[in-house]
């Protein structure tokens, strides 16, 4: 793939430059923009296929709208690389996702063209509706507000809550549904094409708007009657087209589906729709990975492919055969192993079967594994329903995404203490995806919830044992958190499945001067720090305890530690406020233990993007920080 000829793109720094082009040149600009994205991501990995799929839509929106005055609210921000390049960040795009570089997802902190935070999914309609209502209240009728939702985000419950509210407040919101997975069936036939042309015909809509205003001025068309006419119009369209859709049932005018990869047609459609009064939805079919054959043929793999050769499509993956397995793969393989022994076990994930390795179970036991879409709250409550009637679900959710299921965990799982295992993948600082994806709030959020057992493995064998323990009888609702990335055991990860007594920690090494209490895999960094101090000649005698459980705490072990040590260090890859260290500190206070407790964890601020080692250093929980804290005493 040649990346030398970018004559049009090189002239564009901001959307006002884009708007100087004749519409006939937009297809060529789209080709250049797509070329630039492929070139940059081949050496600086990121989310490829989704951004390629919306190149034409991105260009068409900035061409027809007066951004940044007009608002584009992105949903699932990994679609927005083209948007970044066209809005003043082209020359910095090579720093995307790097420490100190541009953010991985749109953020108002970075650019006035980024209207809202969009690292997670399904919030765009609610946010955009709020902005559209604000424009109405602020007497800004010329401000256009557009929500771009897709890449599975329409399956999230918040999207439907927003849709349900769209027709209840005066607004001119335009919702663009980027349907890249045929989630809504395509309608075909001559009548359907006729209706598409009619709906977006300028004369038709001008006459319709004039008639509406005349009826309103004569007092014949109040708000209730207007909604009634919209319902009647939608009913007639549904009868003629032999189809019905949920949007028109909510009094939202529906247009589509159209080809979302035809930029000239998109410009025509957006010019017709943008000034139309009232809420409306434009349904577009796009091809994920459009314009780059390898990504079109395997969109899941090329969602975030890592480094690759842009000319051949060869992914440049190193030899990992001698490296430890990823924690997610240990989870996936162990779950199948347990499920073969326990017929009650089922697996659940909200749209991340490959990311959490539930795809292993889906392949071997397709009738016992469920992908429920981007719907974390539903995933938990669905699991709770199965648990209530005799099954034993392992519900795997990325830690940061589990924040959206907090009420479901409390109300639908914990209150009944159901036999349910919540596996929080990507716990801790996750790296280049940044603040929206770091899984650092789960311990502090869940520790006050009654009936929950909270645990975290120091290595792969401990993960297997915790999973085995959680599925034994009478364990209630168990939360197991583990990080993104690889473990520490290269050959012996597949240990025997043995029960761990709930609430029991273990002593990793004895010591006399200071005790370090770790929670989870960061205990391996504690071991590295202690070994390095010994090699450097440090005479401080350090004890190390892997506590395993944050709730319940091992009180017997804490009694022994408090009796022996006057200084204790706790460490966790999670928010320091309210976390594991706070639990230890509270226990010491409640039991009148005169022990100094130093808590190491994520400080009270959002940590931005970078590699995990870089972020551990910034947060003060890397090996050097541990060594420094140990030697302070």
Automatic annotation (TrEMBL):
Stretches assigned to the Transketolase-like pyrimidine-binding domain: 325-490
Pfam families registered for this protein in UniProt: DXP_synthase_N, Transket_pyr, Transketolase_C
Positions that bind Mg(2+): 151, 180
Superkingdom classification of source: Bacteria
Enzyme class, UniProt record, top EC level: transferase
The keyword Amino-acid biosynthesis is annotated on this UniProt entry: no
Cofactor(s) of this protein: Mg(2+); thiamine diphosphate
Biological processes annotated in GO: isopentenyl diphosphate biosynthetic process, methylerythritol 4-phosphate pathway; terpenoid biosynthetic process; thiamine biosynthetic process
Catalytic activity reported: D-glyceraldehyde 3-phosphate + pyruvate + H(+) = 1-deoxy-D-xylulose 5-phosphate + CO2
PANTHER family: 1-D-DEOXYXYLULOSE 5-PHOSPHATE SYNTHASE-RELATED, 1-DEOXY-D-XYLULOSE-5-PHOSPHATE SYNTHASE, CHLOROPLASTIC
Family under the similarity heading: Belongs to the transketolase family. DXPS subfamily.
Quaternary organization: Homodimer.
Classification via NCBIfam families: dxs, PRK05444.2-2
Record-given protein name: 1-deoxy-D-xylulose-5-phosphate synthase
The species this protein was found in: Leyella stercorea
Encoding gene (name): dxs
């Amino acid at each position: 793939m040649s990346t030398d000829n970018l004559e049009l793109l090189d002239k564009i720094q901001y959307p006002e430059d884009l708007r100087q082009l004749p519409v006939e040149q937009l297809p060529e600009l789209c080709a250049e923009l797509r070329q630039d994205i492929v070139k940059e991501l081949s050496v600086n990995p990121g989310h490829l296929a989704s951004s390629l799929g919306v190149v034409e839509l991105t260009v068409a929106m900035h061409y027809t709208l007066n951004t940044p005055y007009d608002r584009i609210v992105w949903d699932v921000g990994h679609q927005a690389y083209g948007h970044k390049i066209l809005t003043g960040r082209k020359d910095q795009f090579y720093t995307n996702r790097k420490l100190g570089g541009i953010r991985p997802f749109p953020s108002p902190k970075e650019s006035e063209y980024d209207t809202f935070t969009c690292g997670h999914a399904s919030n765009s309609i609610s946010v955009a509706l709020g902005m559209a209502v604000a424009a109405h209240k602020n007497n800004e009728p010329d401000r256009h507000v557009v929500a771009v939702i897709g890449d599975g985000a329409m399956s999230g419950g918040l999207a439907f809550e927003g849709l349900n509210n769209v027709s209840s407040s005066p607004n001119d919101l335009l919702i663009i549904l980027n349907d890249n997975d045929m989630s809504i069936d395509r309608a075909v036939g001559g009548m359907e094409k006729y209706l598409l042309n009619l709906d977006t015909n300028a004369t038709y809509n001008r006459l319709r708007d004039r008639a509406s205003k005349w009826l309103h001025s004569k007092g014949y068309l109040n708000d209730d009657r207007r909604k009634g006419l919209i319902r009647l119009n939608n009913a007639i369209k549904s009868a003629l087209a032999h189809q019905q859709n949920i949007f028109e049932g909510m009094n939202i005018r529906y247009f589509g589906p159209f080809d979302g990869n035809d930029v000239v047609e998109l410009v025509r459609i957006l010019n017709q729709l943008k000034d139309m009064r009232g809420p409306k939805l434009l349904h577009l079919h796009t091809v994920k990975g459009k314009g780059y054959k390898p990504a079109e043929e395997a969109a899941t793999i090329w969602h975030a492919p890592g480094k690759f050769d842009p000319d051949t499509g060869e992914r440049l993956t190193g030899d990992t055969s001698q490296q430890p397995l990823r924690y997610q793969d240990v989870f996936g393989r162990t779950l199948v192993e347990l499920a073969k022994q326990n017929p009650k076990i089922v697996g659940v994930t909200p749209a991340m079967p490959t990311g959490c390795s539930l795809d292993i179970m889906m392949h071997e036991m397709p009738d016992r594994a469920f992908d429920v879409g981007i719907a974390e709250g539903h995933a938990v409550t669905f699991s709770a329903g199965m648990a209530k009637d005799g099954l034993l679900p392992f519900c795997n959710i990325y830690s940061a995404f589990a924040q959206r299921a907090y009420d479901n965990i409390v109300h639908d799982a914990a209150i009944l203490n159901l036999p349910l295992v919540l596996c929080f993948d990507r716990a801790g600082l996750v790296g280049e995806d940044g603040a929206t994806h770091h899984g650092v709030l789960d311990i502090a959020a869940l520790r006050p919830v009654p009936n929950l057992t909270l645990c975290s493995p120091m290595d792969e064998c401990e993960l297997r044992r915790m999973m085995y323990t959680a599925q034994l009888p009478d364990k209630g609702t168990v939360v197991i958190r583990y990080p993104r990335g690889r473990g520490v055991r290269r050959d012996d990860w597949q240990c025997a499945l043995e029960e761990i007594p709930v609430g029991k920690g273990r002593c990793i090494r004895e010591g006399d001067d200071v005790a370090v209490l770790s929670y989870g895999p960061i205990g391996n960094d504690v071991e590295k720090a202690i070994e390095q101090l010994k090699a450097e000649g440090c005479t401080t005698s350090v004890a190390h305890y892997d506590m395993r459980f944050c709730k319940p705490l091992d009180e017997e072990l804490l009694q022994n530690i408090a009796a022996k040590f006057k200084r204790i260090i706790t460490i966790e890859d999670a928010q320091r406020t309210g976390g594991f260290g706070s639990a230890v500190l509270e226990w010491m206070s409640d039991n009148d233990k005169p022990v100094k407790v130093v808590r190491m964890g994520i400080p009270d601020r959002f940590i931005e993007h970078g590699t995990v080692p870089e972020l551990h250093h910034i947060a003060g929980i890397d090996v050097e920080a541990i060594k420094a804290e140990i030697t302070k005493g």
